[in-house]
Specification:
7-stranded mixed β-sheet; 227 residues; 4 helices; 22% helix; binds 2-acetamido-2-deoxy-beta-D-glucopyranose; alpha+beta; 13 strands
Length: 227
């Protein structure tokens, strides 16, 4: 083969690879779910082709054709419903659908909150530092009664329970702090979730509304990789 051919091949090959990479990475065109526009870094799978729009974008499903839901890597998670998204501020107003499901199934569903909301979220999502914490305690009946006696009114009994075997109590935990410092009650398991509250305060008695009102997430994308 003449040296000229090798040169042509060497020039042609990298160009082709670059084109393929760009094709895979090309973001899906903005799409609608209800009245929400879904665009980079989120994408709705193309219904016709099921085509993915490339990492690091995040898949969103369109629930009941009106509510975008971010699926998360936690297998048991129902995901997070998006109430509002601001692409300029890179922020999302979301509802933890797993916790809402527990409320809807109560009472006597025998389902208890196990997951901390933060455990169902991975990078690049961060819970807004302005959030308040709501702590849910799952207790066997006796431990729950003891906790209520100890809690001095700050603990509220929820509708989540398992007959007379176990119950779920809730407490407003002040400023949200994913790393802990929420206090424990003997024999009870705790799960922490962020809420918005009002005027910097949350009343545990309003736990249904607090869970429904959701909280804010922000996202930070890594700088684009050189190709
Ligand atoms: C979007 O739709 C919801 C109901 O699906 C409605 O409550 C809301 O007001 C709408 N928002 C805008 C900005 O149109
Ligand atoms: C729990 O409820 C069952 C029936 O619902 C009852 O038979 C049982 O005695 C109750 N146990 C306690 C400790 O109250
Ligand atoms: C949830 O968070 C609390 C407070 O940080 C921690 O004590 C608990 O172990 C966590 N639970 C799980 C299941 O990770
Ligand atoms: C979270 O709470 C822990 C334990 O109380 C404390 O050590 C830590 O500094 C707090 N973190 C923030 C960001 O407030
Ligand atoms: C929380 O709400 C309950 C019921 O609405 C009310 O009785 C209680 O006083 C409130 N607690 C605080 C600290 O505002």
């Amino acid at each position: 083969m003449a040296p000229g051919h090798w040169l042509a091949l060497a020039l042609w090959l990298p160009l082709m690879l670059t084109a393929a990479t760009a094709e895979e990475r090309r973001p899906c065109s903005p799409n609608k779910c209800g009245n929400h526009t879904i665009s980079h870094p989120f994408w709705l799978p193309d219904r016709a082709t099921g085509r993915s729009c490339g990492s690091p974008d995040f898949e969103v499903t369109c629930k009941d054709k009106i509510t975008p839901v971010i699926l998360t890597s936690a297998a048991i998670s129902l995901g997070f419903a998006i109430l509002r998204v601001s692409y300029e501020d890179r922020s999302l107003h979301v509802v933890d659908l797993g916790k809402r499901y527990l409320l809807q199934q109560a009472p006597n569903s025998c389902l208890v909150p196990i997951w901390n909301t933060s455990a169902k979220l991975s990078a690049p999502f961060t819970i807004s530092p302005g959030s308040l914490g709501l702590v849910l305690y799952s207790c066997p009946e006796a431990a729950g009664a003891a906790a209520l006696a100890l809690g001095g009114g700050e603990l509220v009994r929820t509708g989540m329970r398992c007959g007379n075997e176990s119950q779920v109590l809730v407490r407003a935990g002040g400023r949200y702090n994913g790393t802990g410092g929420y206090g424990r009650y003997e024999g009870c398991d705790s799960a922490v979730m962020p809420v918005l509250g009002a005027n910097g305060e949350a009343n545990a008695s309003d736990y249904v509304r607090l869970i429904d009102d959701g909280f804010f997430l922000t996202w930070e994308l890594p700088p684009p990789q050189p190709e």
